[in-house]
Design a protein that fits this description.
The complex is a heterodimer of chains A (154) and B (123). Chain A is flat. The two termini of chain A are 32 Å apart. In chain A, the strands form 2 sheets. Chain A has a two-stranded antiparallel sheet. By secondary structure, chain A is mostly helical. In chain A, α1 packs across α3, α2 runs antiparallel to α3 and α3 packs across α5. With 123 residues, chain B is an all-alpha fold. Chain B is built from 6 helices and no strands. In chain B, α3 runs antiparallel to α4 and α4 crosses α5. The relative contact order of chain B is 0.07. The C terminus of chain B is likely disordered. Classes of the chains: A mainly alpha (154), B mainly alpha (123). The interface between A and B is large, with 46 and 48 residues.
């Protein structure tokens, strides 16, 4: 675990550093962070792990949502038909939809939101810790208690 | 897991700079549009590998945004694969009660005391 995690942070960081040295780096989250915060030892550590949490936070979560989307389209073909109808009507068959079409595709937008609600990526989030004493429905939740929220209920 | 200390603030500030508003995110629209097109081409070519193409698409978008690194459009890519492996291990490690050390804190000491069998995998 630790070894994989460390190479997930180190390998791409080394890539960006060497690209920047050769002045070949494309603008990215990490290249911007290095430029604005510098790369002395303490900042290097912070930048490296900010980037790694963005990378790990973005990689597997998107995969989960996309798989849920394909499942939903297979299970609810009538929704797929309506979505297809909207695309054909608004975009036509000549080009692919792009990000700026979002506002004119309300049904697609609703499908995306429903995908996230139907099968959230983190139904129980990740463990959080209570910052102060609290109570809910008569149950005491002491400061420091570990909380596992149920996102489906919210 | 991370505690809210000074470093945590730096991380938040770092990430807020690129991911806080629709204007700062719009820089990456092109990345998403291009990778969506790659994805569709891959699905047309080999629809049976759908899950593989999904992993590749998501990995490519976030790698380009975070590191400006463009992975191979086809076939395996070392950085996409290492993230997948890290997340699989994270998911495994973060299931509450999954490891003996969650209920038997003394397992943390197993490395010095050469260990009970029950503690293996605990760390």
């Amino acid at each position: 675990m630790a070894k994989t995690l460390i190479s997930t942070a180190e390998e791409p960081y080394a890539f960006v550093k060497s690209q920047m040295r050769d002045k070949k780096a494309k603008t990215s989250f990490l290249s911007q962070a290095i430029e604005s915060l510098g790369s002395d030892a303490s900042m290097e550590y912070i930048n490296k792990w900010s980037a790694a949490s963005m990378y790990l936070g973005g990689a597997d979560t998107t995969v989960s949502s996309l798989m849920t989307f394909f499942l939903a389209m297979a299970v609810f073909p009538e929704v797929q038909r309506k979505a297809q109808e909207e695309l054909d009507r608004v975009i036509g068959g000549e080009r692919l939809p792009i990000t700026s079409d979002k506002a004119s595709l309300p049904y697609i937008e609703a499908v995306v939101k429903e995908t996230h609600r139907w099968h959230p990526v983190g139904p129980m989030s990740i463990p959080h810790s209570c910052t102060k004493d609290d109570s809910i429905n008569g149950y005491r939740i002491p400061k420091g208690a570990m909380i596992l929220p149920n996102n489906w209920y919210v | 897991m991370h505690q809210p200390d000074q470093n945590f603030k730096h991380h938040r500030r770092n990430i807020a700079k690129v991911a806080s508003s629709s204007t700062s995110l719009a820089v990456f629209d092109r990345v998403q549009n291009e990778e969506a097109a790659h994805f569709l081409l891959n699905v047309m070519e080999s629809p049976n590998d759908l899950f593989e193409h999904i992993r590749k698409e998501a990995g490519a978008v976030i790698l380009r945004v975070t590191y400006g690194y463009t992975p191979n459009a086809k076939g395996p890519d070392p950085l996409v694969d290492v993230a997948g492996q890290a997340m699989a291990e994270f998911a495994d490690a973060s299931v509450p009660g999954r490891w003996p050390v969650d209920v038997m804190p003394f397992c943390k000491l197993a490395s010095i005391s050469s260990g009970y069998h029950v503690c293996s995998n605990a760390r």
